[in-house]
Amino acid sequence: MVDTAPRTTSKTAKPASAPARRPGTASASKPARPAASAPAPSPAGDAAATQPKVDIASLGKQLLGTWADLRIAARERAAQPDMQRIDGQSMAEHRERVLAQLKTLVDQGAVHRAFPKALGGQDDHGGNIASFEELVIADPSLQIKAGVQWGLFGSAVVHLGTEYHHQTFLPDIMSLKVPGAFAMTETGHGSDVAAIGTTATYDEATQQFVINTPFRGAWKDYLGNAALHGTAAVVFAQLITKGVNHGVHAFYVPIRGAKGGFLKGVGGEDDGLKGGLNGIDNGRLHFTNVRVPRENLLNRYGSVAEDGTYSSPIASPGRRFFTMLGTLVQGRVSLDGAATSAAAMALTIAITYGNQRRQFNAASDTDEEVLLDYQRHQRRLLPKLATTYAQIFAHDEFLLKFDAVFSGRADTDDDRQDLETIAAALKPLSTWHALDTLQEAREATGGAGFLAENRIVGLRQDLDIYVTFEGDNNVLLQLVAKRLLTDFSKQFAKADAGAMARYVVQSTAERAYHGTGLRRLAQTIADFGSTARSVSELRDENSQRELLTDRVEAMIAEIAGHLRDARKLPKAEAAAAFNRHQNQLIEAARAHGELLQWEAFTRGLAQTTDPGTKQVLTWLRDLFGLGLVEKHLAWYLMNGRLSPQRAQAVTAYIDRLLERLRPHAQDLVDAFGYKPEHLRAKIASGAELERQDEARAHYAAQRAAGTLPVPEKSKK
């Protein structure tokens, strides 16, 4: 519950022996929670006479989402010291520690949940990801190396292979007897998988595939487990048979022998020290006439008969390619969740510290101000807290969609395309947000945040690569934009002349309405110059939805209009036309992802039953939604969606929301449920509060004894 006593009084904080909260719901890491600031005077039109209170336990349970029990169990595992990173280890020591941790995961039965029941798994795809992404709490290197082994290498065999491959290869993959690499990315073709240079040419005489990397740019690169531990790899290559290239397919390829040396024709290098994630042995692989049996083709979507005849259940090469890659979308799912968790940890550390650290005398002659009482500090951290909440709600819905597709409950082409689009929209937003939040948290905690013992800089280093893992974020957003354009064009694919005429009339009318200032004039008249009326409109849920939706739709419609005739142009001119609008496409896709997050937050809010919690979450949702509007105010003004008066009201109302949310900031991060053994940050352990209390007690004693020196300024 929130204590609303003013911070500038001498009221003591809760004792260090305060009871711990329920595991998995709210943090027991706050042995001495400071009293919250006195609430700001209630703004005009505010009916609430008293401060709402957050039910931390129920909110914490809601944030854990659909697989709450599995997340709690995974967090308990992440709290074990032998599963955690040791700062200062050498790269070699860190690599061996993480490999040993993978063996511990096997021993604890923590990695088989998504594998087939026939092999001891549970066919639980959503629960598997929910558990796996919590490993970021222990060590991001552990999370990613486990992901390489079972989420990429093993998952490729599951989803691209058939029963033969499952029975032959999966038992040793599941037990870690065969550590493996996922050899898709090449030095010369990172995100452009369709253009990779590695070839797998079928030899009818021996019924083998011959695998080659014909030039340096075709080397497989940045592969986890490739530098040291991997003994096999799933290698993606252009399948060539009877002189025809049938596109990218996957092959199971042994790469090392029992003594650890490369097999004949296989070579490689260690990527060496990286900017982060040095517990993973990333490396390069190259192949020279490496032969594997015909059966090692993972042939769920494409097979080669003994005589070299190719067949596939999917006739279209393009659709076949995207179907194969779509089965591996879970990497983006887990990165979205892990990045969100990292942001939540960073905010827990920074807000807890900001609630305890005091600096400068502003409102008192004796006590310094708590950092989080400064508006600028609130502006730095609370909007990022709102975004993190939006991401948590969006991620749980994303995970439900993923589970429905991979379990087969909703596995149509449309379902898979929707899942891929959601993944391509959310993963960029969450990974960028994680980096922004970790950097802001580092700066907001000053020199203390720069110390490795407080976790923030280590997490920042490790999560840096997440923005290009599983697809560069900008490339992924282009995929989203193309899907949005396709959906837009489908609306008119079968439209008759009358429908097209109505669209032209409607578009013309909208341009007249928005472009000539009529909408802004209508807003100004409706508001009658009153900020209160402007705020009333902005805080309305439907008004926020309209603003966010309108931006996406308007941007896509405008781009579609520019590109409408591009398909009729020669290839080079069509590519140039697309390139001229690339930045607009990415911005539209980003706006679409933000809208998905806002909608998910709103649905999560609707499921909140406790009145006080619902009120606080409503303010937080409004802060997220209006923060997006404020970020793009120039667009809303230039495109006639907001009047200048209402645009000014956006920032004014955000400032009010910060005041309202300030007393609840600690409760909102406590609801994330991280314990001291999860955070492992001294500045979030109560140590800072003890230092502050010691200093205040020292000066109070001097004042009481009359021994406090008089400032020179007061004598003058």
From TrEMBL:
Residues 1-49 are annotated as: Disordered. Keywords: FAD, Flavoprotein, Oxidoreductase. Residues 547-684 form the Acyl-CoA oxidase C-terminal domain. Residues 26-49 have a biased composition (Low complexity). It comes from the Bacteria. Residues 181-290 form the Acyl-CoA oxidase/dehydrogenase middle domain. Residues 80-175 form the Acyl-CoA dehydrogenase/oxidase N-terminal domain. Residues 1-12 have a biased composition (Polar residues). Residues 326-485 form the Acyl-CoA oxidase C-alpha1 domain. Its cofactor is FAD. This is Acyl-CoA dehydrogenase. Belongs to the acyl-CoA oxidase family. It comes from Agromyces neolithicus. InterPro entries: ACOX_C_alpha1, Acyl-CoA_Oxase/DH_mid-dom, Acyl-CoA_Oxase/DH_mid-dom_sf, Acyl-CoA_oxidase, Acyl-CoA_oxidase_C, AcylCo_DH-like_C, AcylCoA_DH/ox_N, AcylCoA_DH/ox_N_sf.
